Write the structure tokens for this entry.
Amino acid sequence: MIGIFDSGIGGLTTCRALKQALPGHDMVYFGDTARTPYGSKSREAVVRYSLENSRFLLDMGAEMIVVGCNTASSVAPEAIRQAFDVPVFEVVHPAVEEALAVTKKGQIGVIGTRGTIDSGVYETRIKELLPSATVHSNACPLLVPLVEEGWFHRPETRRIVKSYIHPLRERQIDTLILGCTHYPMLESIIREKAGRRVTIINSGVAVARQVKAYVESHAEWREKGGQGSGDRFYVSDYTPQFRSIAESILKQKVDLQRVQQ
Ligand code: DGL
């Protein structure tokens, strides 16, 4: 069973991508809705929450951890790998690899939470692999609350997205990494504001490809496909609003179970 966690419900976009890539495999999801957002928390807090979330998923039967949150992926994967003896995937590396595979001019934009952008993790990884690249980053702290409120098509959302994307567009980026798993819910507006020449990289889709490659190259994982008992979704705080957004992300009925974390 594949375990995925996020600070809230944005990581369900990663879960959706994983379901599309590996339809026969069961997922157990934990959204830390009681402690969201992670993007404005300290590194220490995000590492601690990530370890607790991973422990919970393993207790629920997960045999692999996918960190479905860029903020946690920026600071916590090493701590998770040291603490638990299971495969651990995160969203930053695969997104960088995809961006580098498609960029033509090496002008790469990155948007994410303050935590992700301030960590500099995308810029560092991109420069390690392509020193000639120029990285233009912008923290977009208002986008997560807009997604968590379900304001996907409001005029206010369009204006805010425009003001975050405009400076990157001015720099003539050719590739834009959605460095936060909430942002795919705003992808059509982001795409429109970035312009047609910009290739959008969805970090959830990127990690799903990597997990799929891992599963297909490991016999013990291949065999797990189709054995399933169904997906399970847990949150640390429950509201009907979370459920309705979860259903609009996954396009199916979702039974969100609240657990004490
Ligand atoms: N989904 C988280 C991420 O990918 C952001 C939400 C938060 O700030 O907690 O970074």
